[in-house]
Amino acid sequence: MGSEVQRRADPQMQADRRYRLLREGTLKLVETSRGERFLYDLAADPDETRDLAAERPGELARMRARLEEARASLGLPALDAPLALGEDAPELDEATREQLRALGYAE
Q: What whole-number distance in Å separates Cα of residue 100 and Cα of residue 88?
């Protein structure tokens, strides 16, 4: 009997929310504008099918603090802040653009 892949809604692919991610070593933290938090160990689970947030509260807290530090140092708005569009969108200085490139968020 062949194995059947079970399809599930990917929590990182929902159009009705925004995402912010942090990867350190093999751990990946995902936070959403709806207050959801997902923690994955990419070495053990490269397909990100097993959320470890409830099982590893210490690592979750550490990663959340690190992500908040990065957000604040870059001057990024909170995930649930209203989006600034068009002329209201903030202009990023070159230092911030370079930090975003270093983090892999910009080219």
A: 20
